[in-house]
Amino acid sequence: MSAAQHMNVAMMTSGGLAPCLSSSVAYLIEFWASALKEGKIGGLTIRMYFDGYKGVLTGDSTVIAPEIYDECSCLHDMGGSPIGNSRVKLTNVKDCMARGFVKEGETPLEVAAQQLIKDDINVIHTIGGDDTNTQAAELSKYILEKHGGKVVVVGMPKTIDNDVYPIVQTFGADTAAEQGAIFFKNVVSESSANPRMLIIHEVMGRDSGYLTAATARKYRDGMKSAKFTGPGFTTTAKSRDIHAVWIPEVSLDIAEEGKRLKKVMDENGCVNVFLSEGAGVEEIVAEMEANGEEVPRDAFGHVSLAKINPGVYFSKRLAGLVGAEKTLVQKSGYFARAAASNTFDRKLIKDCAQEGVASAIAGVSGCMGQDEDKEGTPIRAIEFERIKGGKPFNAEFPWFKEMQAEIGM
User: Fold this and answer.
1) Which of 11, 91, 147, 229 is the most buried (most CB within 10 A)?
2) What pTM did the predictor assign?
């Protein structure tokens, strides 16, 4: 693209929330405004589509006034999305029709393409997970093949699961782990509310145990600086510790774990378990299907984890094995994912946004991130065909193995 070209830039956030959406929008606005001031582009219009792909399909958008570009830095202090999210799959025609986004006989891809063409969009920044970004790539390809137009797509990889190939670290994952640890620091006090208390801390993570493991690590790191009184009190470092971390990548023998944790319960009067919501889902789904129950799924075909309640399922099985008098299941997901970005994530987002704007000006599409397949894991626009979700957490990381050993797993 030439330096004299006026750039019509669009942004949208999509999927579930993560502690990165507001900062991503803020940094992208900052670096596009800088590109204009530095003469790298001839003009600039920034359009926001509301509620993700819903806004693209319905034409619900707004243009940001240039005089408030500098004011957008306040978004760094906000959690959530400043322009709204939704879960919409452009190839799921039935769902898009049912929700009123397209009419009968229309295809979502064509409707979305026509909207981007109408708005004269040159670049669209899709801030979302692997589904969001690969859909945007398909839309860009469709516009080129069907309409002869070019829309550069530069994605920003949002997911607290940190499960996207080949990206080292996705936006918001570190913040979510930090916030989950803060959440449990309060919840763990419930271990003193009743004798023989079982607490299940259910952490988000469909296919990857990263967030559960990282949250446990941050919580236990914080425990190292905590001070406890001497003998005579029931609250101890052991009673406030984590006694099990269950993730999809590590096989779980509930009967054997029950025996081990029964001893913990007898010694400490409580058991604290960190459970990844994706752990044991296959077992739960198989049981539901065997009972003739309908398995709830979202527009992408994913099992709706919030509706099948893995935490409740495992708490019922474990309570009897450890002799719990009372059980408490607490989910930190919504608390953690709604936070504003922490220092680590803001630095990562800033670096990716700066490189992303440069990539867009150069006409190069891709999903921004640290490319783990390249030497030195450089931040670059990673080719969309290489972007894929479902990357498992590496349970062989030394720090995770050490934590397991310290816990006694």
Assistant:
1) 11
2) 0.93
